[in-house]
Amino acid sequence: MENTTNATTVQTTATTVPATETAGPTAAATGPDPLGAPGARAAFLTVRAALRTYTALTAAALLAVVAVAGTGHLVNPFMWVRGILLPLIGVLFGYLARAASRGSRRAFERLRAVSVVFPLAIVGVDLIPGVCPWWYAAMQALCVLPVVRVAVTTRGAALRTAFPKAG
Q: From 49, 53, 102, 115, which residue has the greatest number of CB atoms within 10 Å?
């Protein structure tokens, strides 16, 4: 009989904590998590897919530089440096996208700003006469197209709602 009483006591003293209390003080104050909205999740999936595409394209561009150099054609130091740096930048972009998708406003704002400036800088430098051959400039322009997609997606309604401007 005593075991039954203890089980009843345990059941009656157990409490259910509302979900807003377990998420921390800011969740209770701000209401539902905007990053949990289907539109925001879909936008971040788009961003991450675009960044994976960017990284794959820049890695392919590096392999093209290796192949051209391997056949005895001229490859200047600019092409080597950029060919190595751009895939590494893709890893950095991926880090920013992951941090932003977890709610980091700072990472989101950086990703948003860089995704506009970066393609302009890449194409702008490639347009300087004599910096690189036309085929390499065309390849670099193709590589940054997914980053343009990131710029457009991060300015969409779903992520503007998820990261409203601070008052």
A: 115
Tokens representing 155 are: 């300015």
Question: pLDDT tens-digit profile of 15-39?
Answer: 444 443 334 334 434 445 667 788 8
What is the token pair recorded at 149?
Answer: 């997609």
Are the beta carbons of 117 and 144 closer than 8 angstroms?
Answer: no
Quote the pTM value: 0.76
> Among candidates 101, 124, 110, 115, which has minimal Cα distance to 145?
115
**CB neighbour class for 7 (10 Å; exposed up to 12, middle 13-18, buried from 19):** exposed
- Asked if 144 contacts 69 with a C-beta cutoff of 8 angstroms, the reply is no
Q: What is the DSSP string of 50-90?
A: HHHHHHHHHHHHHHHHHHHHHTT----HHHHHHHHHHHHHH
